[in-house]
From TrEMBL:
GO terms, molecular function: ethanolamine-phosphate cytidylyltransferase activity
Pathway recorded for this protein: Phospholipid metabolism; phosphatidylethanolamine biosynthesis; phosphatidylethanolamine from ethanolamine: step 2/3; Lipid metabolism
EC number: 2.7.7.14
Source organism per UniProt: Drosophila pseudoobscura pseudoobscura (Fruit fly)
Comp. bias (Polar residues): 8-27
Pfam families found in the cross-reference section: CTP_transf_like
Keywords: Lipid biosynthesis, Lipid metabolism, Nucleotidyltransferase, Phospholipid biosynthesis, Phospholipid metabolism, Transferase
GO biological process: phosphatidylethanolamine biosynthetic process
Enzyme class at the top of the EC tree: transferase
Listed InterPro entries: CCT, Cyt_trans-like, Ect1/PCYT2, Rossmann-like_a/b/a_fold
Protein name per its UniProtKB record: ethanolamine-phosphate cytidylyltransferase
Domain of life: Eukaryota
Length: 386
């Protein structure tokens, strides 16, 4: 499939004097032209790890252009994607650091694709991505010194999230002394085998736009779990944002979400959900651990003008208290129809219904990554010995 430009693309001046390795600073534009950075991948089940990589890429240039592989390409090299290419395009376009999206990026990144999209260099995380034949997908741009690496976000991957759903694990929202423990198994890939994310205030600051509402801004508030942030959430937040000037999202704690969702929900813990929502371009602020019932204190503190909820059922607190009673009394409550049928439960259903396929995909991916990691370790030991 040929490259399909999803957003407009403008020309840029080339500057090929880039070094391979971990990127440290932003490139200097030539003759006042924008530095255009190319990122590509599957972007399946887009999470804050993807967003963090794109945030780092944006810091190295002026424009971030994201190439997305088709469903057929992903199935050939990696196994079936969870989301369709249309859904994956929409999710990436919703990330605040993305300027353009191109559907149909080749699995092996070529110099031709960089030139066609007027990109100066390619950026990827410091993990290894390989074709079905075990070939480094970035070997061509690495050889041409048009490749930079950024740090992969430890503790999250699509493989790991799929595993949480298949195994119905609950370790991702442990509390108390074990809350930040990292579980590692000997057979797990060093890149996708880490099942606990380590949150920091710095990471939250990096994801936040840090802007307060202006005087006179109409402030909109929504609340929920926003678990496995997906296209349904994205469409809902876009519509909510259009009801005002400043959108605040309240995120419920893990125990509260589990009380009305049950099973091993939320699939992503509160720390992970905070970053996933903050990465959305429609969101201005997040309330971490928002009360389930929208209170007068919350409305007054944030000077909220509109409170919204989607079409999903509203669970009563203690089985009888309407969590939106106060905004309804103030006549500031609105129901929004996002026009999207996607829910977190539907994603889990997709995974469970194709369980064997996804298990085989995860096992094959981890096996290739372990072999590549071990080969790198041997190479490093040989270099040291020499």
């Amino acid at each position: 499939m040929s490259d399909k430009l999803v957003n407009g693309c403008s020309s840029g001046q080339k500057n090929y004097s880039h070094c391979n390795g971990t990127a440290q600073q932003k490139e200097t534009p030539t003759q006042g032209k924008d530095v255009r950075v190319w990122c590509d991948g599957c972007y399946d089940m887009v999470h804050f790890g993807h967003a963090n990589s794109l945030r780092q890429a944006k810091a190295l240039g002026d424009k971030v252009i994201v190439g997305i592989h088709t469903d057929d390409e992903i199935t050939k090299h990696k196994g079936p994607p969870v989301f369709t290419e249309e859904e994956r395009v929409k999710m990436v376009k919703g990330i605040k650091w993305v300027d353009e999206v191109v559907l149909g990026a080749p699995y092996v990144t070529t110099l031709e694709v960089l030139d066609k999209n007027n990109c100066d260099f390619c950026v990827h995380g410091d993990d290894i991505t390989m074709t079905a034949e075990g070939v480094d997908t970035y070997h061509l741009v690495k050889s041409a010194n048009r490749y930079k690496e950024v740090r992969r976000t430890a503790g999250v991957s699509t493989t790991d999230l799929v595993g949480r759903m298949l195994l119905l694990t609950r370790n991702h929202f442990r509390q108390g002394s074990a809350e930040y423990d990292i579980e590692k198994e000997a057979a797990k890939s060093p890149w996708t085998g880490c099942s606990q994310f380590l949150p920091t205030t710095q990471k939250i600051i990096q994801f936040s736009d840090g802007k307060s509402p202006n005087a006179g801004d109409k402030i909109v508030y929504v609340a929920g779990a926003f678990d496995l942030f997906h296209v349904g959430h994205l469409d809902f937040l876009e519509k909510a944002s259009k009801l005002g000037d400043y959108l605040i999202v309240g995120l419920h704690t893990d125990p509260v979400v589990n009380s009305y969702k049950g099973s091993n929900y939320p699939i992503m813990n509160l720390h992970e959900r905070v970053l996933s929502v903050l990465a959305c371009k429609f969101v201005n602020e997040v309330v971490i651990g928002a009360p389930y019932c929208v209170t007068e204190e919350l409305l007054d503190h944030f000077k909220i003008d509109v409170v919204c909820h989607g079409r999903t059922p509203i669970a009563m607190e203690d089985g009888k208290i309407d969590p939106y009673a106060v905004p309804k009394t103030r006549a500031i409550f609105e129901l929004i129809d996002s026009g999207n049928e996607m829910t977190t439960e539907r994603i889990v259903e997709r995974i469970i219904s194709h369980r064997l396929e996804y298990e085989r995909r995860n096992q094959a991916k981890e096996k290739k990554e372990i072999e590549a990691f071990e080969a790198l370790q041997r190479q490093k030991q040989t270099q040291k010995a020499g």
